[in-house]
Amino acid sequence: MTLNLCTSPKLVGTAFFDSSSSSKLSIGSSSSFSSPILSSKNVGLRSLSLRKSGNVNLSVRSSLETAGPTVTVGQVTEVNKDTFWPIVNAAGDKTVVLDMFTQWCGPCKVIAPKFKELSEKYLDVVFLKLDCNQDNKPLAKELGLKVVPTFKILKDSKVVKEVTGAKYDDLVAAINTVRSS
Fold first, then answer.
1. Where does the record locate the signal sequence feature (predicted)?
2. Which residues in the chain show pLDDT less than 50?
């Protein structure tokens, strides 16, 4: 089985999955490694469950799913009006946290590094950011944006919590509440 593998923004390659071992990947055709990076595989080529190992962030998609947007575990993914709903729908029952910001917003700039840290901490949560510029105005309006920053927390493609303003503690509490539900 061949999978597209992205281990970092600098390295994109093809991985060959050894179906006899759920934790062995061959990158390209020469090097291979066995490690606990893969925690399970989902039969049917839909996905592989991943966890972070060391400083390596992995995003694995089967060759059947290469069209469309991708999300990398442990990172914030920038979305737009065209990519937001496909990513949210693909997340299924995972918690999705959306940072709705603008380039000119001071509090947005202050909380952005903390939001990135949360994406590195909560590897079971999908972290997205949406620049609420003119191009994305229809999506911002659809999601009910009134102030920036606003954080929308979704589960099963529905908004279940909202945090307005750069309130880090409130955001962490909301994420933990939704994750445990």
1. none
2. 1-53, 55-58, 60-66
pLDDT, residue 156, reads 96
The model's pLDDT over 88-113, given as tens digits with 9 standing for 90+, comes to 999 999 999 999 999 999 999 999 99
The token pair at 136 is 């994305």
* Contacts with 171 (C-beta within 8 Å, 6 or more apart), sequence order: 97, 111, 115, 118, 151, 163
Are 177 and 161 contacting, i.e. CB atoms less than 8 angstroms apart?
yes
**C-alpha closest to that of 73 among 57, 89, 61:** 57
What pLDDT does 70 receive? 85
The domain over range 77-180 is classified in CATH as 3.40.30.10: yes
CA nearest neighbour of 136 among 79, 70, 96: 79
d(CA 144, CA 122): 26
Q: In whole angstroms, give the CA distance from residue 58 to residue 92.
A: 19
Cβ pair 95, 175 in contact under 8 A: yes
Q: Which two tokens stand for residue 154?
A: 């979704």
Strand, helix or coil for residue 11: strand
Q: What is d(CA 54, CA 52) in angstroms, rounded to the nearest whole number?
A: 6
- Phi-psi category of residue 87: left, alpha or beta, with phi > 0 → left and psi -120 to 50 → alpha: alpha
Active site residue ranges: 105, 108
